[in-house]
């Protein structure tokens, strides 16, 4: 079977697979992922930390809050009502009314009521322990005759001294003291503005694209003050849905700009070079086939695709078109196979394939997308373009072919000095580079949303989801005891200004040991036979059997278990409990108003079973570790490719080709150092692509065999198309994408220059 026949069969088989895979997508719940954190490494601290992050992301990530402010409460409530109706009509959001939250809270309190004999506030426990129980009797009798004292969850028969009601009051957050319920809305007054609060959740999750588009549309409506009811009204937003919505809109815009910019630039270049649209159409067919193949494979494999993968996919236009360009230019003079295609494809695949070892799911997805796209495009080029009719192989000379010769004509005699300059520049600048994977560098949240979040935190402080303590123990009981022992350190942190407040599981769910101590304390003091409880019943005229019945219920009562508590606990309390993970039990301590990270980390180091989790720092540390790993992978890739070249050429020509991407890498790193840009993981990954492209240029030049001018033209066209794609990436509002684009842009230009000087002129293969 001939090579052409084999290529035809391979292309037909791949096309059939793409069609079948595309049809299968209709049966899959395929979706686009827009969560930026999906591109980053999971918390490597332990499985519990990762579970905690996932749980908080699920519990808090789908929630959002709106503060609707106006000069008076009626105005604020009217505007909040309108916003609530708009959100509910969209069909993507569920609003949580103050009444429903209150009902849920009451159900939980009713559950606690059955365990009232084991629950006691810290202040009352200290009072009883000090022997001041006599004061409780007079206070209880006074409240019993005070009809304006308010409702009690437990009546005198169930809670004669009001200890359970006092315990419930101790659980109430003091911060809610300036909030009242008006027409079903919590309303907060800060001294100048009345704020109506809207709590809601995204039904399909904050990273659902339909929900993001719906929220973006609503925000646009609010911004225009389309209704008179929204005039002179301030709206503050907080929640992942708002950040995700704006990030997704930005990504869609970038996809359009990069794709359109690349297409327009390529169109212009082809018209200037070939004076015909046929080469462009054929090239776009090659690129389109590659992108479609990659899209179908990744979507069938993962069931989802990250939106930023499509952004990189748009940049693939400027890379995969290289093979078509070389084939078109070469076939104009000598139709047939494209020398060096297989070796160039192999080296590019090694460059992209290195990303698969980075242990970053997002980048692995991008790498697979790119490798698949390049392989499919190369197969299309090898099978189709050599069979073009002669009339499609004509072109006219223009300024582009002339431009392709400039580096060789101007600098060819100065190659030695140029290499020396590269080495000296790298020696001086590269040591100044430093690694930084701080998330503030890699991700730039919307500044307006950050300001609004700060304003909301000032009005109503909420726990941070990315900074917390993680407690662990062998049993649930030991875990609760650990939390009780840890509480004094948390109170010290509050008093010293490290944090403003905290949420501790053991405050809402006392340990069994603590509950039993409470039960014994009550049995030996106020609830003993003849004690203050009995006196209370006598003075209020209750029959003697009431006191007996009370003591019998007290004697047969059992303590509150974690399982019972969890069955009714409000979500904001239940998320503190992680449960059992790998033979151990875990819980969280949520923190509000974190001001001193170092102090909190120092506190955790005093305990073997308590960790301070700082998600941003953990991700940055993991990224830094992978940056070092990637550096070694890059060196390994250079070594592997160098060995392949030596085995193939068996001459110093291998070194010439390898010097092209190596020199470009050094020049790119020098530029980053001169600009004061820290080296990140995404800069380093871009250098893998620089390696692959540099090898393409060098190999095609080395295999030009008398068609060097044509090859230089094809390389220049490749450089220009790649520069368009990655130059546009460098303008991205997402810092990690911009870093990738800037690095590849610099490397591509350097590759062109060095390939023209180091490899151009070599005509005899394997000499």
Quote the distance from N terminus to C terminus: 32 Å
User: What is the molecular shape?
Assistant: elongated
| Whole-angstrom Rg | 34 Å
Structural class: alpha+beta
- The count of strands amounts to 13
Percent of residues in beta strands:
5-15%
Helix content: 55-70%
| Spans where pLDDT lies below 50 across 5 or more residues | 762-767
Number of helices: 31
Q: On the 0-100 scale, what is the average pLDDT?
A: 77
- Largest sheet composition: 6 strands, antiparallel
Key features?
6-stranded antiparallel beta sheet, 31 helices, 10% strand, 767 residues, 63% helix, disordered C terminus, alpha+beta, 5-stranded antiparallel beta sheet
Give your account of this protein's structure.
This protein is an alpha+beta fold. It has a domain at 1-33 and 275-396. The chain has 31 helices and 13 strands.
Write the layout of secondary structure elements.
Blueprint (H helix, E strand, L loop, with lengths): L2 H23 L5 E3 L13 H15 L1 E8 L2 H18 L2 E4 L1 H16 L8 H8 L4 H11 L18 H9 L7 E4 L2 E5 L4 E9 L6 H15 L10 E6 H35 L3 H25 L1 E3 H9 L1 H15 L9 H13 L7 H24 L14 H13 L3 H15 L9 H4 L4 H13 L4 E10 L2 H20 L5 E4 H4 L3 H13 L7 H8 L4 H13 L5 H7 L2 H4 L2 E5 L2 E9 L4 H9 L4 E5 H35 L3 H22 L6 H22 L5 H22 L5 H24 L9
Parallel strand pairs: 1-8
Antiparallel strand pairs: 2-6, 2-7, 3-6, 4-5, 5-6, 9-12, 9-13, 10-12, 11-12
